[in-house]
């Protein structure tokens, strides 16, 4: 015997649907009537249609599908405006998703292009720096002086930026230009005089007098920012000249020296200063590379608010890579002889590079800029590339000169 299925909807709260727009049809309720469809709670039972509170039962048997389609059609015709609004919202949502997808693809392509530029120019810079370090002498010193001049100009532009000038008075522009020239002369004086103390003191005195005698009201902020510029951009880079060119003791155990051409200086060309500079530069590059890769792979805990992208995980990986590079190169160059000295040298290079990077990040944060300049495509300015080397030269020179007996030979 065939059974008839029923849907029970009267147990739920009714949902009124206005049928005023369908009042012209005599077979449908009058404008004053209201169609109330109620939702089924759980069971199959009765289907109730309520007209003005009067309950009528409609059984759905074999023709149940046809009846349900008619009810859906009535509800759809009753509210055309609501359906049109829903369609409009769907179209807007689809357009928004399409725009987001296009933006994501464009951003991905931009990042890929930026990465290619960084790799290309990074390899070119690395090769050029390697040749300059091997050349030594006036070639190395002239390259340092050129980098110092550009870096000093970028530093004073940062000091004069809107982000920093909002809280302090910047030095006059002519003082900034004079300081940039003085900073670039310091490496040359270091090469030919062997020391830099007198020249730095003289430059600081000259700049202080120029600031005090300027028109208007001299401010301490002008003096402090200018003096830090002389120290940061001029004095600190001079230690690389002292390390590379000043430590002329031969690295006797280095096998590269015996095979070095006579026309390029022969075995005497491989000095403690050359080996120490190569290891220090390579360790800094390794520290930056491993810290970047470690941060991308494992980075979760921010290192400091000065540079939010740096993480503790990346820093630890960078430290390990820096020490490993220092130890491996010390075995290749046979300098320093002690394993403990090689590990300590790697520690110094790493911490010098990290705090140099954070110092420049603090300056850029206060200035409200992302890069110190746009000289190098994909890398920013000179300060963005050499910030890790600022303090490391002084630490490396002091370690080799003071703590290694006979320069570690």
Description:
The structure is a single chain. The protein starts with 14 loop residues before the first strand and ends in a 6-residue tail after the last helix. 32% of the residues are buried. The protein has helices at 64-78, 80-135, 137-159, 162-165, 173-193, 197-212, 220-235, 238-246, 255-258, 272-298, 312-333, 339-367, 382-386, 392-403; strands spanning 15-18, 34-37, 48-51, 54-57, 302-304, 307-311. The chain is mostly helical and 409 residues long. The longest helix is centred in the N-terminal third of the chain and has 56 residues, at 80-135.
- Could you tell me the number of beta strands? 6
pLDDT under 50 segments (min length 5)? Answer: 1-63, 71-76
Q: How much helix, percentage-wise, in residues?
A: 55-70%
- Helix-strand makeup class: mainly alpha
Strand order across the biggest sheet? 1-2-3-4
Q: Beta fraction of the residues? A: 5-15%
Task: Count up the helices.
Answer: 14
Instruction: Name the average pLDDT.
Output: 78
Distance between the termini: 106 Å
Task: Output the keywords.
single chain; 409 residues; 4-stranded antiparallel beta sheet; two-stranded antiparallel sheet; 14 helices; 63% helix; disordered N terminus
